[in-house]
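Hypothesis: this fold can be encoded by more than one sequence.
Test: take the structure tokens below, design a sequence, compare later.
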């Protein structure tokens, strides 16, 4: 998804800060990048390709200015070309705009502007914005009012940031797309050269789609809400409504370290994040579980007592939602998981249902839209998210944080495990589960069990054996069904190979026709209960069709007899086994993609935070 960074108050450092910020936003996925710096004039550099391509362009141009904006673009209108890269300019090249989102009425605006004589250089929806600002300036508005007036004409979703020639301020606004202000008013945080100069310390401000873009400079943030407008310059910042009305904002402090967004010696963020899982899980449990009492305390969430639960989510988070729906059902609460993008067309929630949005980023447009629909229909909403201050956390009636720490790799790994852990806590807190003590002790063992997998996994050998297969199947039952879905999603998104996850019992109803000696089947089977026995039966069906079988198992059933390879998992509580088995599948996906030389942290066509519907 597009990423925005803006900086005011750092003068000669502006360009470096913008480019560094863009590199921190790379994880969101992008296909072109650019910057605009405003001082006495306006300097813009942009290009299709990666940040390194932008650096090469900048090396020849060295633009300078006291304020600036930068952007990584993920194409929605028009292909990834130099012309379509942001920032976009007005006819006079005095106004530069970067934008994340989709302007729904852009065609009408563009037609009107073209008729009035404006010349467009790109295919983007964004380009209407600088031309609208140009018109407002021509009508005599001052820069701030011109930007407000232009943004007021937009329909759709946007985070917009604007700089203008000869103006030492940034203007920005948001509607349905994330935007956060970073505040650096602390002289100690300023550069050594600046302090050595003896100049009065001035404030610096950053505007970004996400905190990692400026986390190296400050931990003080203000999360902007829809309909808000911000002006920032070296002399301070001001947040108002788009019409200029007063807004009370509170500052937050980000509680994670900039170090947490580095690779710490791992080849890829994804591998680092897979290895961070034991710590992330411990963080999720910290202070919430009383093992002696066999209780989970989630403060006011413990009083929710829902009569029915709908979970809405996308992608990996949807798989966590499918898992959680089963937990709630087992505890006697009617529960259902919905793909967020389909929710509006599904059964309406009963008035007293609790609608739970599961989203690591907290900014996924489909999930936000499903939750808004739920609220419109009168439901209470709860966000289960990784991102403090995210739109979902602010819009829902309640929020529960999974505390996984920043996840940079586009493929979700540690956040999936932490979502499962958090949803287990939620289930324990709001339902009466007979075996609560047993579940809690299983959860306590989870970080150690994951560590054991990380220390002993033979997933790399499996990846080596099957790296050239054309198609992969994943099967599981009950709580292992979402693991099969997730195993397949992880493999397909980072290896670009075909992979499907199935409920084990469904194979014989159609997909079995595709199974041949060339189709590795990963079967997740733990324990030796009836479900395990039935899954072993399904394994026999594929084995009889010569399919190579990889059993992800604790060895309790006799699945190993029918498997060509085994990925071992420790003997754990059945709720926890799903997470542990999934870690093996994360490693299979990672090593396969690595051997195939794929772009693991930024798979083609994908974005970390999907802020369009
Ligand atoms: C897959 C992946 C995506 C996300 C999905 C929802 O590895 O990361 O499928 O899970 O886009 O994202 P969030 O959880 O941010 O709502």
């Amino acid at each position: 998804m597009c990423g925005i960074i803006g900086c005011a108050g750092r003068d000669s450092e502006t360009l470096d800060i913008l480019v560094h910020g863009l590199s921190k936003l790379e994880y969101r996925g992008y296909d072109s990048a650019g910057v605009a710096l405003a001082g006495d004039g306006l300097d813009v550099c942009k290009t299709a390709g990666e940040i390194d391509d932008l650096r090469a362009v900048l090396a020849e141009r060295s633009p300078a200015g006291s304020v600036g904006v930068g952007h990584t673009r993920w194409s929605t209108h028009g292909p990834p070309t130099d012309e379509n890269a942001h920032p976009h300019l007005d006819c006079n090249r005095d106004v530069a705009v970067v934008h994340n989102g989709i302007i729904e009425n852009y065609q009408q605006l563009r037609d009107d502007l073209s008729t009035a004589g404006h010349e467009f250089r790109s295919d983007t929806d964004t380009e209407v914005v600088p031309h609208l600002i140009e018109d407002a300036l021509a009508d005599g508005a001052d820069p701030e009012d011109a930007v407000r007036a232009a943004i007021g004409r937009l329909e759709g979703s946007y985070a917009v940031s604007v700089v203008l020639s000869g103006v030492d301020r940034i203007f920005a606004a948001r509607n349905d797309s994330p935007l956060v202000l970073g505040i650096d008013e602390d002289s100690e945080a300023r550069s050594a050269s600046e302090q050595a100069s003896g100049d009065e310390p001035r404030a610096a401000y950053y505007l970004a789609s996400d905190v990692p873009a400026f986390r190296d400079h400050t931990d003080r943030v203000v999360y902007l809400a829809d309909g808000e407008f911000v002006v920032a310059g070296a002399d301070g910042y001001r947040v108002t409504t788009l019409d200029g009305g007063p807004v009370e904002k509170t500052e937050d402090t980000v509680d994670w370290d900039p170090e947490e967004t580095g690779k710490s010696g791992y080849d890829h963020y994804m591998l680092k994040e897979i290895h961070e899982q034991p710590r992330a899980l411990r963080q999720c449990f910290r202070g919430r579980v009383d093992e002696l009492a066999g209780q989970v305390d989630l403060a006011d969430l413990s009083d929710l007592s829902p009569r029915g639960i709908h979970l809405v989510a996308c992608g990996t988070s949807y798989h966590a939602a499918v898992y959680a729906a089963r937990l709630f059902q087992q505890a006697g609460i009617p529960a259902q998981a919905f793909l967020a993008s389909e929710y509006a067309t599904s059964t309406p929630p009963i008035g007293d249902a609790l609608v739970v949005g599961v989203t690591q980023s907290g900014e996924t447009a489909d999930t936000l839209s499903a939750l808004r629909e739920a609220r419109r229909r009168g439901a209470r909403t709860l966000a289960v998210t990784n991102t403090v201050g995210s739109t979902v956390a602010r819009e829902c009636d309640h929020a529960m944080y999974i505390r996984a720490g920043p996840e940079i790799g586009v493929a979700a790994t540690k956040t999936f495990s932490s979502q499962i852990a958090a949803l287990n806590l939620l289930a324990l807190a709001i339902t009466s589960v007979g075996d609560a003590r047993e579940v809690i002790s299983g959860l306590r063992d989870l970080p150690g069990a994951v560590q054991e997998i990380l220390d002993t996994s033979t997933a790399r050998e499996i990846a080596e054996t099957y790296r050239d297969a054309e198609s992969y199947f994943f099967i599981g039952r009950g709580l292992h069904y979402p693991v099969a879905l997730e195993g397949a999603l992880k493999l397909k998104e980072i290896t670009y190979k075909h992979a499907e996850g199935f409920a084990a019992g469904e194979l014989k109803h159609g997909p079995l026709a595709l199974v041949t000696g060339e189709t590795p089947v990963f079967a997740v089977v733990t324990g030796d209960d009836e479900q395990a026995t039935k899954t072993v039966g399904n394994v026999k069906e594929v084995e009889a069709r010569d399919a190579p079988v990889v059993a992800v198992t604790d060895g309790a059933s006799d699945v190993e007899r029918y498997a060509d390879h085994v990925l071992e998992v420790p003997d754990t509580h059945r709720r926890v086994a799903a997470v542990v088995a999934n870690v093996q599948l994360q490693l299979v996906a990672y090593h396969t993609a690595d051997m195939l030389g794929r772009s693991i942290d930024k798979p083609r066509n994908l974005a970390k935070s999907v802020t369009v519907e």
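The radius of gyration is 25 Å. Residues 189-194 have pLDDT under 50 and may be disordered.
Hypothesis status: open.
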